Amino acid sequence: MTPFADLHDLGRIFGASNREARVALTTPDFSDATMAADDAAGSAAALRARLLSAKRAFSTRRADLSLACGLSKQFAPNAGDLILASVASVGHHTRLETVHGRRAQLYTGDEIIVAYGARYAPDQFDAIIPNSVGPCDLAAGGGIAAEVVQRHARTRQPTRIEPKGILVDVAGRALNLRQFSLPTLSAQEKKCVVVAVVGTSMNAGKTTAVTQLIRGLSRSGMRVGACKVTGTGSGGDLWSMMDAGAAHALDFTDVGFSTTAGCDIEEVEAGAHQILAHLESLGVDIVVMEIADGLLQRETAALLSAPSRLPARLDAVVLAAADAMGATAGADWLAQRRLPLRAVSGLVTASPLAAHEASTQCGVDIVSTFDLAEPQWAARVALAPAITSKQAAFV
To answer: Could you give the 3-state DSSP secondary structure of residue 336?
Structure first.
């Protein structure tokens, strides 16, 4: 491919006469478009070599980077757009989770491949997609480029990055994670039991409850599928699910999201149904589904409330709570929506006193997180039909 200053100049160059084209290719172009481009990108082959040497984030794992032929700063960023950026200063995130699961140390000047997305993390950052391709923040260790607008009081300043440009294909179109999603499956009849694990907040013990439940069900001889349908792209949860015994594990990055924060609710729900469809197509007996953050978070609340169709797919719900009051309020919230709460688990069960307080109010089993790894408890929580006293009040 002939080197060019910016892919957005292609139409102008190819539309010119041969003489004009030669001038365009040999004369420096100091237009805004050219100045905004990464002058070190060079040819597509040189760019691909550059991408190979960059630290590539987990969020980009499904993307085919061989399609990248150039860089552009002429687009307004969209969720899932892939970018090449350099590290300007190292802050809160000192490491980048790679596609292989290794947490690579970051240094000033490193080039990284990440994706644009918003971030909703009460214990860390509230971040939005910037309006233009310019200096911004690394909002998550899994590789999310965003503009941090506020942060938790105990969280350091974010790591700052300088995008070199959005990766574009030979036609000058932005490479976006949606292009690399799993194939869309047609709607099918429900094939297996689905157990959702939800939480009262971030860091309430959801992922630990998920892995222990997977462990208990797999120990009982069941073929378990696992998934995380909302959140911020990171491989840690998926690998924990596989380590616990899941036969297959998928998350929202498999259906085109770098993060689900701020995304269209209907698209997030459609992604959740596609994840379920793919796991069912793989022949699992049961699916353990994690829904990120707390019940009051925008996407979580929407997925578990009308008019969402996801609640109709759920056979059981486990609530991970950080304390007794959260467990009580969470159980009430779920009962109002007639969701099939089977047990409360999570951090609250680390304290016998807090667990006792919750047991007097929630009307369901309070199950130690690690008891979920026992086949009898896993089966009781996931498979035994039940109706709680709180649910009965709303029937």
So the answer is: helix
